[in-house]
Amino acid sequence: MTLKNLIKEVERLKSIKKKYGGGTIRNYAVTKLRGIKQTVEAVDNIIEEFTVFNERDEWEELKCLLQIK
How many structural domains does the chain have? Predict the structure, then answer.
């Protein structure tokens, strides 16, 4: 999965989370977002070495969407 696709997936999950007040679909979105956020936080220190320059903006956008500092 590319960073662009991952950003689109996070945006889709966030819209589902906002749209549905509760229930199975919202819980699915919350769980999926939590997993993505934990993965991004864990990989953040290592990813800097392996990303090419134009992907760093996408990586920062993803971190911003997930509210990672």
Answer: 1
